[in-house]
Write a structure and sequence with these properties.
The complex is a heterodimer.
Chain A (H helix, E strand, L loop, with lengths): L1 H18 L13 E4 L4 E3 L8 E6 L5 H17 L6 E5 L11 H11 L5 E3 L4 H5 L3 E2 L1 E7 L4 E7 L15 H10 L13 E3 L5
Chain B lengths: L1 H18 L6 E3 H9 L5 E7 L4 H11 L4 E2 L2 E9 L6 H11 L5 E6 L5 H6 L6 E2 L1 E6 L2 E6 L4 H11 L3
Parallel strand pairs in B: 1-5, 2-4, 4-5
Antiparallel strand pairs in B: 2-7, 3-4, 7-8
Classes of the chains: A alpha+beta, B alpha/beta.
Organism (chain B): Natronoflexus pectinivorans
GO molecular function (chain B): antioxidant activity; isomerase activity; oxidoreductase activity
Pfam families (chain B): AhpC-TSA
C-alpha cells in the first residue's frame, strides 16, 4: 500500500512537472498559426521582417488584463513602428468562461480600440510557452531564422495605477534590445488570472 | 414594561448584528510569512484569493469545510485576499456580507513588483487561486482551483503522516 502511495506521489510529481514546463529566457519560441478577430490567420512566421514580437497571453474577463489593456495599446503605438509589434492571444476555453468566447473577443477589441491582433488560442499554444496566467508576457527577439525569448513576465510593476509605474519591464527590455544590449530584467512574476482550460 | 424590554432586546440584537462587520486586517506579506513559518504545532492553510477571481470564489466552500483541528492538531485557515488595499471597503467587506467565508480573512499588502511571489513559494507563477500549507518545516503548494480532497491530501503531507 505504501509503495502504491509513493508511486502515486511520483506520478503526481511528474504530471505537475510536465504541466509546468516553462519556456525560459534564451529558448527558441514555438511557432504558431491562430485565428485573429478579423477571421484571418496570423502566424509567427508573418513577423519575420520584424525585430521582435510582444506576445501577451490575455483574455476578456480578467480584471488584471482589463487594467493593462490601455497599456497594451500604448506599447503597440510606441513599439509597433520600431518593429516590436504586440500580439494578444486568448488561451481561455469559452466553455468554462463564456465571456472569453471569440465573438466577445471581437466586441471587446472594437470597444477598447485594440490596435493589435487578438488571436484565439484553440490549440493550447499557451502550454508550449508555459504561460500560466493572464496577462503573461513573452517578449520575443528575431534571431534571423527563428525567435528566442528575451523576457517573460509582467508589463510593469504597478497593475492598479498606470500613473505610478516605476519599472516598465517590457518597454525597458525592448529599449535594451533596440540598443543592441541584453535586457537587465529578464523575468518577473505578477498576480493574474489562471488560464482556464480542460485537460 | 414587557414591551419596552422586548424593544430593548430587539435593539440590542440589531446593534450586535451591525457591530459584527467582519474584521479584515491589513497584513504585510512578510508578516504573514513570518507568522506561518515560525515553527509551531499549528498547520497553516493559506489561500490566496480575490473577490474578482472566479475560480477563487468558486472554491471558497471547499475551504469552509476544513475543520479547526485535524487529528488533534490545530489547523488555521487564512483567506489572504489580494484585492487592492483601497478596495477593502468597496469590494472585500461587501463580498463577505454576501458570501459565507468561515475562516479568517486578511487583506494581503504586497510590495511593488512581483519578487514577493517567489518568496511565498518558488513554484508560484502568480496566478490565483493559490494555496500554501505549512507545518513546521513541511510545506505543500498548489496553484489553481483546488478541492477539499486535495486540501486534505496536502494537510496530510505536511502533518507528517
Amino acid at each position: 500500500m505504501k509503495t502504491f502511495k509513493y508511486l502515486m506521489m511520483m506520478t503526481l510529481a511528474l504530471a505537475t512537472f510536465t504541466a509546468g514546463a516553462q519556456l525560459k529566457v534564451g529558448d527558441k519560441a514555438p511557432g504558431f498559426k491562430l485565428k485573429n478577430i478579423d477571421h484571418q490567420w496570423v502566424s509567427l512566421d508573418d513577423y519575420k521582417d520584424q525585430k521582435g514580437v510582444i506576445v501577451v497571453f490575455s483574455c476578456n474577463h480578467c480584471p488584471y488584463v482589463v487594467l493593462y489593456e490601455s497599456r497594451m495599446i500604448e506599447l503597440q503605438k510606441k513599439y509597433g513602428p520600431k518593429k516590436f509589434p504586440l500580439i494578444a492571444i486568448n488561451p481561455n476555453d469559452s466553455t468554462i468562461v463564456p465571456a472569453d468566447g471569440f465573438s466577445y473577443m471581437v466586441t471587446n477589441a472594437a470597444e477598447k480600440g485594440f490596435n493589435f491582433p487578438y488571436l484565439l488560442d484553440d490549440q493550447q499554444l499557451f502550454r508550449k510557452f508555459g504561460a500560466t496566467r493572464t496577462p503573461h508576457v513573452y517578449l520575443l527577439k528575431n534571431e534571423g531564422d527563428h525567435f528566442t525569448v528575451a523576457y517573460i513576465g509582467a508589463i510593469d510593476d504597478n497593475p492598479q495605477d498606470a500613473s505610478d509605474v516605476k519599472e516598465k519591464y517590457v518597454a525597458q527590455a525592448i529599449d535594451a534590445l533596440l540598443a543592441g544590449q541584453k535586457p537587465k530584467v529578464t523575468e518577473t512574476r505578477a498576480i493574474g488570472c489562471t488560464i482556464k482550460f480542460r485537460e | 414594561m414587557r414591551i419596552i424590554l422586548l424593544l430593548m432586546l430587539a435593539l440590542s440584537i440589531s446593534l450586535k448584528t451591525l457591530g459584527e462587520t467582519r474584521k479584515v486586517p491589513d497584513v504585510e506579506v512578510s508578516q504573514l510569512l513570518k507568522r506561518i513559518e515560525t515553527p509551531s504545532d499549528t498547520i497553516y492553510v493559506v489561500n490566496f484569493w480575490a473577490t474578482w477571481c472566479l475560480p477563487c470564489v468558486k472554491e471558497i466552500p471547499e475551504f469552509n469545510r476544513i475543520e479547526k483541528s485535524y487529528q488533534g492538531q490545530p489547523v488555521q485557515v487564512i483567506m489572504a485576499s489580494l484585492d487592492f488595499p483601497n478596495q477593502k471597503e468597496s469590494r472585500v467587506l461587501p463580498f463577505l456580507e454576501n458570501h459565507t467565508v468561515t475562516h479568517d480573512v486578511i487583506l494581503t499588502v504586497t510590495p511593488r513588483g512581483g519578487e514577493w511571489i517567489a518568496r511565498v513559494d518558488n513554484a508560484w507563477t502568480g496566478a490565483i487561486p493559490a494555496t500554501l500549507i505549512i507545518n513546521r518545516d513541511q510545506r505543500s503548494f498548489y496553484e489553481g482551483e483546488i478541492n477539499y480532497e486535495r486540501l486534505m491530501e496536502m494537510i496530510g503531507e505536511v502533518s507528517g503522516e
